[in-house]
Amino acid sequence: MEKIITINPATEEVLGEYPELQEKEILDRISLSAKAFQSWSSMNIEKRCEYLLQVAEVLKRKKKSLARLITLEMGKPIKQSFAEIEKCEWVCRYYAENAEQQLKDIEISTEMSRSYVTFQPLGPILAIMPWNFPFWQVFRFAAPNLVAGNTALLKHSSNTMGCAIELEKIFEEADLPKGVFQNLVISSRKVPMVIESSDVCGVTLTGSTPVGKEVAKISGWHLKKTVLELGGSDPYIIFRDADIDNAVEACVTSRLINNGQSCIAAKRFIVEKSIFDAFVEKFVLLIKSKKVGNPIDETVDVGPLARKDLLLELHQQVRRGKELGDNVILGGDIIQSKGFYYTPTIAVVKNTESPLFKEETFGPVAAVIPAKDEEEAVSLANSSSYGLGAAVFTSDIEKGNRIARNKLLAGSCFVNDFVKSDPRLPFGGIKESGYGRELSVFGIREFVNIKTVCVK
Questions:
Q1: Which of 92, 201, 263, 413 is flagged as catalytic?
Q2: Could you read off the pLDDT of 16-27 as tens digits, one per residue?
Q3: pTM to 2 decimal places
């Protein structure tokens, strides 16, 4: 029997072994999800909201153990793991308090006696989720979809399978009916059979762009609705009139959060030439001050990368960049110790063919790029196949708003702060960063039948 093995990226020790589900077991779980949907979807929405509040209480009660599990499995600094669980609790409470209004029928005036739009759940939804935010990514899918009346099937990343097992237990402890939320202990090669099942009504994926394209192809062939939140190479523009200290603080926070392994982490820092040296000097000093080490230590700021292959891939990107002329002014090396550690790295990039400019860098590596003026800065920011997030730093708020609103090609644009997700705001990208939206009213309406009803 094949097994999925999880490894502590800080120590390289084996954490757990999980037997993969066989085909019959997978089909049985899909069938149970479809059966559970019949009663779950017909339940009063107020009752589903109550269940979501119970889930929030379980998260609150188990926060310490869940945070520790996240850190052990994927290497996030423990203080960030606590914040992740708190955010999951927040999204549950947000939808418990707002879902009924968000899914309320919309009356539309026509020549009919009554015309309205109603939002009906679709059925079992498959969520293919990544390891970098092993609880948050799942909850930002699960909270809106479960309260909308759908049921959930989770295919989590293999290296966070312990988190996936615990996620199913959380919903069980909150007394949700059997089959409403289920984890599938399967490898990626078994995903197509799940998508192809006639009982599965939609697919949502957070992951890399190549994987997203493959999932979209299979889902499209079977006419399954998809939401794809894919890679990113977020540009942050720092203009000469910006508060440099505030900009540096935000940029460092965004680049190093989650050990640099976030789709919406800042990756390209485009700085006006007149302040380029001043910005870089402070940027280097702040990054150098961050403590690298075992993430279970509460004083650590940067832990290991989640897997060895990711560590080697990141180092290759840095090496290829150097060959193309990147000037690595800080770091640029694998730390020779147990665990998958990489030195926080800064490179001055002037060649837009550099991997640090063109590709997504999933780790603590920052590319700083000089720009002569606003026009060039915006052009460099948009010269990317990705379009997830972007930020602008300037003391001219009108200018910042104008650029964020009208010029930057991204799904989320922030002014004088780093990009982050929020249950109250829609989240998602354009171009090769995917399509569809999670969170807010837009997220809860992705996997529903937006049904028109007319009465004469």
A1: 263
A2: 999 999 999 999
A3: 0.97
